């Protein structure tokens, strides 16, 4: 098994491509070791000292390290953990499967929210997945769109610029009711 790695815009996060499916659909975010109980793979990766977060896409794993740790010191152990897991035959997830993404929204703004989710799914999420992360809809209130940033996007130095200059401008252009986009620290 050969696992490729790619850098992401977030220097604390590295993208690992195992060359096979990680999840059938959706994403799974494990911001802490305590949140990884439903994933034998995430638990194994958190076993590497210095790992601060794990995120799964359909064909990739992103790992976020602690600031005090160098990639040169933990990357070989992470590669080993991913390789051991896929060779073990264990499932990536047990019990609860991957998250479909967007939060539900019912109410008077249902049509606007449907348009927001469609733009996120067709224009934003595919590009963000290339960088090892995901951005999902969390809420809409009085013109403000709240988005949850996961994987490489969470804590990325360029995430504010991406939100304000990219996503906010896109949503405001296509949906006049949108006035601002704000990040949500954690959707849980």
UniProtKB/TrEMBL annotation:
Coiled coil: none annotated. Belongs to the NifU family. SUPFAM superfamilies: Fe-S cluster assembly (FSCA) domain-like, Hypothetical protein SAV1430. This is NifU family protein. It holds the Pfam family NifU. It comes from the Bacteria. PANTHER family: IRON-SULFUR CLUSTER SCAFFOLD PROTEIN NFU-RELATED (PTHR11178), NFU1 IRON-SULFUR CLUSTER SCAFFOLD HOMOLOG, MITOCHONDRIAL (PTHR11178:SF1). Residues 3-89 form the Scaffold protein Nfu/NifU N-terminal domain.
């Amino acid at each position: 098994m050969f696992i490729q790695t790619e850098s992401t815009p977030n220097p604390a996060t590295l993208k690992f491509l195992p060359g096979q499916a990680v999840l059938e659909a959706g994403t799974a975010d494990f911001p802490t070791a305590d949140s990884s109980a439903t994933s034998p793979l995430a638990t194994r990766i958190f076993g590497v000292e210095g790992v601060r977060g794990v995120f799964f896409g359909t064909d990739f794993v992103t790992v976020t390290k602690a600031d005090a740790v160098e990639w040169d010191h933990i990357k070989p152990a992470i590669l080993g953990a991913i390789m051991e897991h896929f060779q073990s035959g264990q499932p990536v997830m047990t019990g609860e499967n991957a998250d479909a993404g967007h939060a539900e929204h019912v109410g008077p703004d249902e049509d606007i929210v449907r348009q927001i989710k469609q733009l996120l799914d067709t224009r934003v999420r595919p590009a963000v997945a290339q960088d090892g992360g995901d951005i999902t809809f969390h809420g809409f209130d009085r013109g403000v769109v709240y988005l949850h940033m996961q994987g490489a996007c969470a804590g990325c130095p360029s995430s504010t610029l991406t939100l304000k200059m990219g996503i906010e401008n896109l949503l405001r252009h296509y949906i006049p009711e949108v006035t601002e986009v704000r990040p949500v620290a954690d959707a849980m």
